[in-house]
Design brief:
Blueprint (H helix, E strand, L loop, with lengths): L2 H4 L6 E7 L2 E7 L2 E4 L2 E5 L13 E8 L8 E12 L3 E13 L3 H23 L5
Antiparallel strand pairs: 1-2, 1-5, 3-4, 4-7, 5-6, 6-7
């Protein structure tokens, strides 16, 4: 998997973590790929503990001014290293969507339906819809 190619063209990412039981999201304007990891500029002025091995999610999203030609990439992973200026993110799972075409739309719907069912089974003991 070539992460650099997958996120090519995106100018901003959103880093999401769970903090004290609540989701928090931070825009990240500077990032780079080194080997198989994404190096993020650490958000300034955010007084939140981010820990090594903490689960996290990166979202890259774009569309035109008419909210068409939607493209997004969601990468689940772990925070693998932190220093004063950067956060190193290790990718574990990548999900993509590019608007346009019947096949892309059907794949998007089916993946969403599968993920929703997994969540319902795991957290709400739902057997089937």
């Amino acid at each position: 998997m070539n992460i650099r190619e997958i996120i090519k063209g995106f100018r901003i990412a959103v880093l999401s973590i769970i903090y004290n039981g609540y989701p928090l999201a931070f825009p990240i304007k500077k990032f780079d790929v080194v080997n198989d990891r994404i190096i993020l500029a650490r958000p300034k002025g955010i007084n939140v503990d981010i820990n090594v091995n903490q689960r996290a999610c990166l979202l890259f999203h774009t569309h035109d001014k008419y909210v068409k030609n939607i493209r997004y990439i969601r990468i689940k992973g772990l925070i693998s290293k932190i220093d004063d200026n950067t956060i190193e993110f290790t990718c574990q799972n990548i999900s993509t969507f590019k608007q346009g075409g019947l096949i892309s739309t059907i794949k998007f719907i089916l993946k969403g339906k599968r993920r929703a069912m997994e969540t319902l089974k795991k957290y709400y003991n739902v057997k089937q819809l």
